[in-house]
Amino acid sequence: MVRERRHQQALKLSLPLPNPATDHQFWGETQLLPLLPSPDIEKVSDLEKMAILGQGSGSAVYKVVHKKTTAIYALKVLLLDRDSGSIRNRAAREAGILKRVDSEYIIGCHAILDDGFSGTEAKSGENYLCFVMEYMERGSLQEVLRARQRLPETVISGIARRVLKGLRYLHGMKIVHRDIKPSNLLVNDKGEVKIADFGVSRVAMGAGAVAGAGAFEARDSAMGTCAYMSPERFDPETWGGGDGAADEFAGDVWSLGVVVLECHVGHFPLIGAGQIPDWVTLMCAICFGERLEMPETASPEFRSFVRRCLERDWRKRGTVAELLGHSFCD
């Protein structure tokens, strides 16, 4: 009981983000981060790999089983390049946020470990940080869309409602996700959707919901997936984000609107089928494209919801609280 209570307290701790230029001791030789062990999982060797779920640049996700309890988890492994401050900063950011959050709408983190990782991709001398995460049996919403192409509005409504509740929780903690997209929305065997991947998330600065990001935002605004990026992040000078005055949380709402529309039409909705989704094409579509055309099969409630999300002017865009009360989410 005492150990469990300590674990719950650890989940609530805030990890200050390091400054790679000055915080040289933060990434020490023996311990990269304050660890988050669970009562059952104390080291990576407690887990046995079953399958690889995904792989990216410098990271991989495995399906693992706990040898003692037979519980199934997802193990996210990040390769920490000591020559790259951005990679270390991203790992610290994600670890710090995962230690703070505890919501049924957010993917659960059971442990954060750096005691070593041995895998087919591991090389001598490399350093890894491992996140022992809640296993979501149906994978990501992106995988669901690949298999089913389009989703009915009743299902999309449930997805939107859960993501909005997750955003309400995160925004209440001043956390901006900044990368809401189908691959970062995971689905379990109950059909429940949870928000995942906080590698580019950050804690908003300043009073209330408005972040006085200043110089930090200027050099950090390109983080995230540009296809789901809001106009004020793509073109801050035109859309009122250049002075750091934009409500950062509004960007998460825009991203949700793109996801919702994509679920209905079965493909990325902001550019034509023959267009190449490069930076320039996406910027033109997101920031200067013609009035958004809704699918003819969409209900009035769906159209209204998406339009409130995809309002280019963040000052006029629907808020999380407003959208949770929208008729589409009933």
Task: Describe what this molecule looks like in 3D.
This protein has 330 residues and is α+β, with helices and mostly antiparallel strands. The protein has two domains: 2-134, Phosphorylase Kinase, domain 1, CATH 3.30.200; 141-329, Transferase(Phosphotransferase) domain 1 (Transferase(Phosphotransferase), domain 1, Orthogonal Bundle). It has helices spanning 2-11, 85-100, 141-148, 153-172, 214-220, 231-234, 236-239, 249-265, 279-288, 300-309, 320-324, and strands at residues 47-56, 59-66, 72-80, 109-113, 127-134, 175-176, 185-187, 193-195, 202-203. The chain has a five-stranded antiparallel beta sheet, covered by helices on one side. It is globular, with a radius of gyration of 20 Å. The model is unreliable at 1-35 and 206-223 (pLDDT under 50).
